[in-house]
Specification:
There is one protein chain. A two-stranded antiparallel ribbon has the order 1-2. 0% of the residues are buried. The chain contains three helices and two strands. A hairpin with a 2-residue loop joins β1 and β2. The protein is α+β, with helices and mostly antiparallel strands.
Length: 64
């Protein structure tokens, strides 16, 4: 286990505990929740090059 990923002879795999929790997330219901999510995405942006594209709908929603 390294940085939340499982390293084995077959390669790098995602941690199944973290992957299964994504569908169980509660839906965002207020602007404050969306703002928190975009803040977290901005912090993680340096680790994923396409994260900005995925977060664009949330940012547009906040501008309304």
């Amino acid at each position: 286990m390294l940085l939340g990923f499982i390293i084995s002879n077959q390669g790098i795999e995602a941690n199944t505990e973290k992957v299964t929790s994504i569908p169980d997330m509660i839906a965002l219901v207020c602007i404050k929740d969306v703002d928190k999510l975009t803040g977290c995405m901005e912090a993680l942006n340096r680790f994923s090059s396409r994260l900005g594209e995925w977060g664009l709908p949330f940012i547009k929603l906040l501008k309304r």
